Amino acid sequence: MNIEILISTMNLENHEDLVNNLKVKKSLVINQTNTMQIKDIDYGDKRLYSFNEKGLSKSRNRALDNAIGDICVLADDDLEYEENYEKTINDGYIKYPDADIIAFYVDNYDSNKKRPKRKEGKINFLKSLQIQSVQVTFKRKSIKDKKIRFNENFGAGTKFYMGEENIFLAECLKKGLKIYYVPKTIATLKDNNSSWFKGFDENYFNVRGAVFYAMSKTWYKLLIIQFAIRKRKRFIDNKISTLKAIEYMLNGVKKYKRECL
Question: 45, 119, 136, 171 — which has fewest CB within 10 A?
Answer without folding.
Answer: 119
